[in-house]
Amino acid sequence: DAGITQSPRYKITETGRQVTLMCHQTWSHSYMFWYRQDLGHGLRLIYYSAAADITDKGEVPDGYVVSRSKTENFPLTLESATRSQTSVYFCASSDYAKRPTYEQYFGPGTRLTVT
Amino acid sequence: QQQVKQSPQSLIVQKGGISIINCAYENTAFDYFPWYQQFPGKGPALLIAIRPDVSEKKEGRFTISFNKSAKQFSLHIMDSQPGDSATYFCAASYMNYGGSQGNLIFGKGTKLSVKP
After folding, report:
1. What's the pLDDT tens digit per position in B83-100?
2. What are phi and psi of A73, to 5 degrees?
């Protein structure tokens, strides 16, 4: 049971390049999330998805694009990477049907450095 | 109103001592308050959670105390161990399903170090 996986785990890219971070979950959870974690800011929601083909913005969506064509995948794309997007990115999933825990399951993270 | 304020930013405790982390919120619509634990190089994982209809929830050495009138909640770690050294995040949410109201709002985290 793989759970939730992210790839790559580490990525270095140059300013202006497009980069895609992948997220895959094996639980068929309906909800998926992308967060970024920065010192002093905690976890901030970038985008989330309630189901395949349904996505919505979170707190810090600018500069990011998401898609969800299949329930199990939720890629995050930085269309033109900037140094301010250097961060650790976490994907998470949740099965809202499992009341009342409302638990989100996090992946291991992707450390992205933009030079 | 959507913020969750967490303190302290860092905490050093001796082995066997009590670790206390505090969080405060403004939005009275929040009705679900989880704590997440994150070890270095790992993703956060749910530790314990509480709903505002109870004032305290205990799971092993971990206890959430909840003060609805003060809009505050705290995590107490009894008999703290070096293995508890991690970053702890409080969070808050509505227990609705679907739409933005269901999302977790995280505090900024507390880095706990338990010294042997």
Report:
1. 999 999 999 987 665 555
2. -120, 140
**Considering only CB atoms, which chain B residues are within 8 Å of A2?**
none
> CB contact, 8 Å: B30 with chain A?
no
CB contact under 8 A, B46 and A96: no
The two most distant CA atoms of chain B are separated, in Å, by 45
Beta strands A19-25 and A31-38, pairing class: unpaired
Query: Which residues of chain B lie closer than 8 angstroms to A104, CB-CB?
Result: 46, 104
- B44 to A48: CB separation less than 8 angstroms, yes or no: no
pLDDT in tens, chain B (116 residues): 678 999 999 999 999 999 999 999 998 888 889 999 999 999 999 999 998 889 999 999 999 999 999 999 999 999 999 999 999 999 998 766 555 556 889 999 999 999 99
Q: Choose among A18, A19, A29, A9: nearest CA to A73.
A: A29
Q: What is the DSSP string of A60-102?
A: --TTEEE--SSTTB--EEESS--GGG-EEEEEEEE-TTSTTT-
Q: Which residues of B touch A106 (CB under 8 A)?
A: 43-45
Cβ pair A42:B106 closer than 8 A: yes
Q: Which residue has the tokens 């808050």?
A: B92
B108 vs A40, A104, A106: nearest CB:
A40
